[in-house]
Amino acid sequence: MEILSSRVLLRPRDPERSRAFYRDVLGLAIFREFPGGTVFFIGQGLLEVAAHGGDGSGPGSTSLYMQVRDVRAEFAKLVERGVEVLREPKVEPWGLHEGWIRDPDGVRIVLVEVPADHPLRRDTRS
To answer: Where would I find the VOC domain in this sequence (predicted)?
Structure first.
């Protein structure tokens, strides 16, 4: 599978406290912010801390996000290999195509396709 980008997703019980910790205590640089979340640089990777998608406990509180070119094609390959599918790919309200799988230890992996017309693909520099 060709991974275009990836990040670790945290869904803590207190997102504001966690964002302050990573921003102010650890001093991580911010990659981008969006309503309810912040994405930080962590070396060659990214860490997203957000208020949606979990309650800070259980297997959904930490997940992996992997961007691929064609999420449906990747899902077809993974199903053939016996990977557990949590949710088939669909277009989310925010415009990304997302599908969810689970690794053998229960970690949720979100496979994401960013459509050509999505704002994430636009250069917002002026």
So the answer is: 3-114
Q: How far apart are CA 108 and CA 123, in angstroms?
A: 30
**What distance in Å separates the CA atoms of residue 6 and residue 34, rounded to the nearest whole number?**
17
Rg, C-alpha atoms of the chain = 15
Helix (H) or strand (E) holding 106: none
β-pair type (97-102, 37-42): unpaired
Architecture category of domain 5-118 in CATH: Roll (3.10)
Q: Chunked in runs of 10, what are the mean pLDDT values of the chain (126 residues)?
A: 88 89 90 92 88 58 86 92 93 91 83 85 71
CA distance 35 to 71: 25
Domains of the chain, by residue range, sit at 5-118
Q: How far is CA 94 from CA 14, 57, 114, 118, in A?
A: 23, 25, 10, 9
pTM of the entire structure? 0.69
